[in-house]
Write a structure and sequence with these properties.
Low-confidence stretches: none
CATH architecture: 3-Layer(aba) Sandwich
Order of helices and strands: HHEEEHEE
Number of strands: 5
Number of domains: 1
Radius of gyration: 14 Å
Strand content: 35-45%
Mean pLDDT: 86
CATH topology: Trna Endonuclease, Chain: A, domain 1
Number of helices: 3
CATH class: Alpha Beta
Strand order of the largest sheet: 1-2-3-4-5
């Protein structure tokens, strides 16, 4: 994933921080969607009662709940997933839930850090 981000032309990256986060979200979604087979369901901007999840990836056995940040840190992204109870929406499915925070460094134009946590 980092190699693909490194190959993107920097002139296409938006200037505002909020637009950059949305840009990286869209690119991540496209890469994930195009590089997966039919056993994965990838969704962007998933609405819940308390907010909007940046991305979810669902397999036959697992659901990955992903939050993106730009120039912050992956822990903040992971904490948002918890604070806004994003996982609650999926607990009825009886699948393993994996929370993923991803932080992008807009100067290096790539993933800076990630934080992953499984929940029951």
């Amino acid at each position: 994933m980092m190699s693909i981000f490194a190959s993107l032309a920097n002139i296409n990256i938006p200037k505002s921080l909020q637009d950059r986060e949305a840009y990286y979200n869209s690119i991540f979604y496209l890469i994930t969607t195009l590089l997966t087979d039919n056993n994965l369901n990838v969704y962007s901007e998933v609405l819940t009662s308390e907010g909007r999840i940046d991305c979810t990836v669902e397999t036959e056995t697992d659901i990955y709940i992903i939050e993106f940040k730009a120039n912050q840190n992956a822990e903040i992204a992971l904490q948002q997933i918890k604070d806004k109870n994003y996982a609650e929406r999926f607990k009825i499915k009886d699948k393993k839930l994996v929370l993923i925070g991803i932080n992008f460094d807009t100067e290096k134009r790539n993933i800076k850090d990630t934080k992953i946590e499984e929940i029951d």
